[in-house]
Amino acid sequence: MATSDVKLIGAWASPFVIRALIALKVKSISYEFLQETFGSKSKLLLQSNPIHKKIPVLIHADKPICESLIIVQYIDEVWTSGPTILPSDPYDRAIARFWAAYIDDKWFPCLIGIVRGQLEGEAKETVIQQMSAGLVLLEEAFEKCSEGKGYFGGEKIGYLDIALGSFLGWINVTENMIGMKVIDEAKTPCLVGWAERFCADSAVKEVMPEIEKLEEVAKLLQANV
Question: How much is the pLDDT for 195?
Fold first, then answer.
């Protein structure tokens, strides 16, 4: 299938956009990246995602697809010639989707609360504990999903790897902000090794932002709270 008609509306620092970028790289799909300006929304974005008005939006053959995890699934289903992203087994696929939803609905709010600098004192400590506890649960999920292999998806990067791995840069920013590791050898030894392998993969290295640049974005987020 021709790939010259693939466009991605997004911003390089967004972990949700990074998900789509990694999926495109995994499948070796050529695409045009349409960068949004921080703090504003382009006319194309508003036209393409009039409901949520959020990035990312994948445009394929002039048809928009919204929401990062839906985009990853769409890419996997449309471009079948490349490596598969979602598990082939229906149960494994359901489990991967469950944990991806957990990451977005339960775990991510803790991370972004810290990044934005909205929390102080006891409230901040509580959220840090919740974020760390969530990663311990994901450590357990990794042990089951990976079946002793290098990734949630087994021997290669899969759906759940992309869902969590897209946040690794922001996890590093958070660790620097709070002065402690949340992915560490003591509590999440499997995730430590997984994070190193994930970030070393060629599909990830090309799109994973530098920590220093993310820290600059974090300052902008804090200034706009």
Answer: 98
